Amino acid sequence: MIKIGQYNTLEVIKLVDFGVFLNGGDDFGNILLPKNTVPAGTKLGDKLKVFIYFDSEDEVIATTDEPLVEVGGFAKLRIVGATTIGAFADWGLRKDLLIPFSEQRRRLEEGEEVMVRVYTDRASGRIVGSTKFNRFLDKTPANYKVGQEVQVVIAETTELGYKAVINGEHWGLFFKTEAFGKLFIGKQLKAYIQEIRPDGKINLSLQKVGLGKVDDLADKILTSLEIKGGFIPVSDKSSPEDIFRVFRTSKATFKKTIGGLYKKGLIVIEKDGIRLNDND
What we know:
CvfB_WH; CATH 2.40.50.140
């Protein structure tokens, strides 16, 4: 079954001067892949991975160009124009993505970059964008477990921290105390479920929850010390920025980890760094 607004693998069934036709099945028939996006050496029977969308005439068409986002996804896009029907965003294809006025939380202006959710409008069947995320999220129960790894995209900033979309389905929040490192709107990364509150809201962490993050970091520190000749110029007195730059972790977790390594006699904590304990 052909999925509009997503990637499909389709068979080449006809070669023409202006491109090739792909097998779109009973629902779509022959789908054109224009000549300027046909891979060199393409022949009958080849199966090509293509993105299916609508051209400027609202006809189904294929392309090997890669969009910045598929239907159902979120991405930070640049607004390239505004008309009486809405704003248009560059999503990496020749035809820009329409964001209707009714799908804008505020009027969008040319040149700005905004987070957009791409979906298929049921009434028209067209692929459009929206900045009104709430109606797409938290529609299903959040069946996550504390410590579970998830994929997130940073969508908004608040006084509390950063709001993120979890697995394209639910809202989550990184509190400022958890948001060490460089987070920004549109950044995609892995995260961990830190807490599911009684009201259903989800708190996120950039690190594994509990002992898991300490164990992983301990191995990383010991390995780094061995590679660096037994000494690294970062200690519990270092700034949070320096610690994150070297070990990609918070200062609190770093201090807890090296404290555990010290108690085991594996390292020595010095004023200007940490050193492998080479005493037998």
